[in-house]
Amino acid sequence: xxxxxxxxxxxxxxxxxxxxxxxxxxxxxxxxxxxxxxxxxxxxxxxxxxxxxxxxxxxxxxxxxxxxxxxxxxxxxxxxxxxxxxxxxxxxxxxxxxxxxxxxxxxxxxxxxxxxxxxxxxxxxxxxxxxxxxxxxxxxxxxxxxxxxxxxxxxxxxxxxxxxxxxxxxxxxxxxxxxxxxxxxxxxxxxxxxxxxxxxxxxxxxxxxxxxxxxxxxxxxxxxxxxxxxxxxxxxxxxxxxxxxxxxxxxxxxxxxxxxxxxxxxxxxxxxxxxxxxxxxx
Length: 282
Prior knowledge:
CATH topology of the largest domain: Immunoglobulin-like
Strand content: over 45%
Number of helices: 3
CATH class of the largest domain: Mainly Beta
Helix content: 25-40%
Number of strands: 16
CATH superfamily of the largest domain: Immunoglobulins
CATH architecture of the largest domain: Sandwich
Number of domains: 3
Strand order of the largest sheet: 1-2-6-5
Radius of gyration: 35 Å
Distance between the termini: 92 Å
Oligomer: single chain
């Protein structure tokens, strides 16, 4: 009887082992199928991205072909800081020009209404150029207009953002935060890139920081000043950039909560250009 029971147990064990092995084999096949499916999905996703990129490239090429102005560029020839002007040479090429059409160049300062026309120079074929002196304190829109017997057509040319280019060249981050027991924490970071491909700078030392000052105002009166070039916490200079960090804590126990408190930061480079920012108490 014992041998009979033992035989049955062994038989059941063999059957269960076979079932388990069969299920494990099935799981392995499913895993292989899932891995294959995953690879197929990944391949489809890659193909979709490739097709999307190709479509976008073709759309961009098509839109470029529809533009009347096929090429355009400008170069700053001279920067006159004494008179606050900039001499600029512009050049462009047109895709076509209809019979009897005359090309005009117009510019205006951003957010103004009136356009000013300048004489253009034909340099051969459908190529044109002009040179003009612009005030340095402006940002300008430009456009071309072709006038013919069938009417007019126009297209934007270049955006000449001279004022923004100069006033934003050096970035200043300034923070004035109230701390504990009538203390205020001051934090300033200045970043000055020493490379500029747009401006015709002969000596890049002219782009370096000449003066950096922080002034704390209370009720529009000077409370305290700092010479950041002398009192900085950290100043790094390389061939390509200057960076300055300054932190301090000031005691202002006589200041009421509703009183106006401002932190002004002024940075000047050796070109004589000033960069300013203002931080209100948070």
